[in-house]
Amino acid sequence: LFFSFSLLNLYLHQIMNVEFVYNTDFRINNEDKITSWINSFCQKEGFTIDSLVFAFFNDEEIKALNIKFLNHDYYTDVISFDESNNNLIKGNIAISIDRVKDNSNTFSSLFDDELKRVIIHGVLHLMGFNDNTDDEKSLIRKKEDSALEMFHVKQ
């Protein structure tokens, strides 16, 4: 019985370790699928999620966060607040739904695909990936593409 209870606790922790907070009218329709996909991608990359919160904002709110925490006076699609320790991911990821909409139009992609790209981009930052140089941008884009392929294969 103890063994089964331990497995249940582990299973529940893996499901409940990703949270979505909505500060706009936007809502993700498939939170369970997104959570499962994020967990699978992290495991594939050798990481475990301790606690991960995705908070969705409008442009003005994310710009205010960008100014307050990063001293960047501009709009952005995603900001990652990293509390990870080695291969244990812990953090908060702020996402601008307005930027995701604009990005999907700019790049002629579906909104849902662009949202997943931005979500995993934030997770990749918590894994230690950066996008400051051309080489880093190329690597993080390849990781995003790999994650998106995983999502579409799982469906």
Task: Explain what you see.
The chain is built from six helices and four strands. By secondary structure, it is of the alpha/beta class. The protein has a four-stranded mixed β-sheet with strand order 1-2-4-3. The radius of gyration is 16 Å and the shape is globular. The N and C termini lie far apart (33 Å).
Question: What layout of secondary structure does this protein have?
Answer:
Blueprint: H1 2-16, E1 18-22, H2 31-44, E2 48-57, H3 59-70, E3 78-82, E4 88-96, H4 97-106, H5 111-126, H6 134-154
Parallel strand pairs: 1-2, 2-4
Antiparallel strand pairs: 3-4
Helix pairs in contact: 2-6, 4-5, 5-6
What is the compact description of this entry?
It contains six helices and four strands; from the N terminus they run αβαβαββααα. With 155 residues, the protein is an alpha/beta fold.
